[in-house]
Amino acid sequence: MAKTIYRAAVIGVGNIGRQAHLPGYSSCAGVELAAICDTNPERLARVAEQYGVDKEHTYTDYRQMYEKEHLDVVSVCTPTWAHYDQTVDALKQGIHVMCEKPTAMNTEETVKMVKAADAAGKTLAVGWNNRFRLDATTLRKYYDAGLFGPIYYAKSGWLRRRGNPHGWFTKKELSGGGPLIDCGVHALDLTHWLMGQPQPISVTASTYCKFGNYDVDGIGQYWAESGNEEGVFDTEDLASAFIKFANGATMMYDVSWAYNGRNTGIYTQLHGEKAGADLDPLKIYGEVERNIVDFEPHLNLQVNAQEKKVHNFIASLRGEETLLCPGYESIVIAQIVDAIYESAQTGETVKIEPVS
Ligand SMILES: NC(=O)c1ccc[n+]([C@@H]2O[C@H](COP(=O)([O-])OP(=O)(O)OC[C@H]3O[C@@H](n4cnc5c(N)ncnc54)[C@H](O)[C@@H]3O)[C@@H](O)[C@H]2O)c1
Questions:
Q1: Does the pLDDT at position 104 exceed 90?
Q2: Domain 150-272+333-351 bears CATH identifier 3.30.110.70
Q3: Residue 17 CA to ligand 1 centre (angstroms)
Q4: Which residues are CB-contacts of 42 (< 8 A; sequence separation ≥ 6)?
Q5: Which residue puts its alpha carbon closest to atom 7 of ligand 1?
Q6: Alpha carbon nearest to ligand 1 atom 21, residue
Q7: What whole-number distance in Å separates Cα of residue 75 and Cα of residue 166?
């Protein structure tokens, strides 16, 4: 039987912890925000006051929090290097986990996290908020209804003209890489999910770092509230890839923090045998009775995708909804990311084998 009240905690109350997980748990019926953890004591105290968490339930060491708080669920919202230990330790203690994207530093860690969830019989969810956007769920509904037929070609990416995040994001040992593993995984996961999640078989890719810590006027601050005070920049700032799938489909993909071109936002183009689509703005390209017909669905309902992902996680534990972002679906995304970095380094096409 589902629990009445879920005791929830958030580790890492920086940007995404405050933008998605704290409001998500606070607005979810039957959830008590029991504790929070952050290695930055000032931020921890400020956020505790904002969310009404007593000082005795704030921690700078997540292990103490796991031991003392009898948690049911935890969100891992720390820099990527910390995801693996914090997630696996929670699962071993019988705590369900929602981990932010990218799931981990690489495929090996991601697979071990999924196996830890299986071994513990607990849920591992990953924070792929773009799957919860109303335009995305509408498109996926059309895909499931067969509107597009088989999708054999897709384009995907997120190009920023100048948009580096600061802090730990630009230091590879903390982040795992640059725009590819940061914002790029959102586009990759979203497009792959909308294609019906075909099995990737090979990747040919290049990465570049032509701008690094650029110095131009008129650029706003991007994210990250922690890490890397010394300002190391040792990741790529652009990645491009050609990905092949076992069903014969292919994807062209590119992502940048900095390049000389227009800002695209997250973009997805799907090309199926019966119809195609652009996402954002949502537009369908089809044929009706030998006429070429385009249409743009009217979507009036606003969905806060960041909060919805947290609500879906809790609703899935209650047996009320299907979990939209189960951890195991992140394994192929991690494999594609690893293969892009390997192909860029070796100059060769990299084959991908399914993980059992
Ligand atoms: N889904 C999304 O749209 C989205 C958006 C931004 C970031 N993210 C992801 O969320 C994660 C966090 O990113 P962010 O932008 O919030 O970073 P951030 O630097 O703004 O916040 C991270 C917080 O974690 C704390 N922290 C660092 N190490 C810690 C540790 N070992 N234990 C406890 N706390 C620790 C920091 O003090 C900081 O408050 C990353 O994996 C990032 O990729 C997801």
A1: yes
A2: no
A3: 7
A4: none
A5: 16
A6: 14
A7: 22
Spans of all domains in the chain: 6-129+306-325, 150-272+333-351
Taking the centre of ligand 1 as the mean of its atom positions, its distance from the CA of residue 82, in whole angstroms, is 9
- C-alpha span between 267 and 287 (Å, rounded): 23
- Closest C-alpha residue for ligand 1 atom 6: 16
Q: What is the pLDDT of residues 232-268, one digit of tens each?
A: 899 999 999 999 999 999 999 999 999 999 999 999 9
Measured from the CB, is residue 39 less than 6 Å from ligand 1? yes
Contacting residues for 177 by C-beta, under 8 A, at least 6 apart? 235, 236, 337, 341
* Closest C-alpha to ligand 1, atom 28: 78
Q: Is the CB of 131 under 6 A from ligand 1?
A: no
Instruction: Find out whether the beta carbon of 171 lies less than 6 Å from any atom of ligand 1.
Output: no
Q: Which pair of tokens denotes residue 105?
A: 């530093």
User: Residue 256 burial (CB < 10 Å; 0-12/13-18/19+)?
Assistant: buried
DSSP class per residue in 48-72: HHHHT--GGGEESSHHHHHHHH--S
Q: What number is the average pLDDT over the span 76-95?
A: 98
Query: From the alpha carbon of 17, which atom of ligand 1 is closest?
Result: 16
Q: 3-state DSSP call for residue 315?
A: helix
CATH superfamily of 6-129+306-325: NAD(P)-binding Rossmann-like Domain (3.40.50.720)
Question: How far is ligand 1, taken at its centre, from the CA of residue 78, in Å?
Answer: 4
Separation of CA 77 and ligand 1 centre (Å):
5
* pLDDT tens column, 273-329: 999 999 989 999 999 999 999 999 999 778 899 999 999 999 999 999 999 999 999
210 C-alpha to ligand 1 centroid (Å): 26
Residue-wise pLDDT tens digits, 12-66: 999 999 999 999 999 999 999 999 999 999 999 999 999 999 999 999 999 999 9
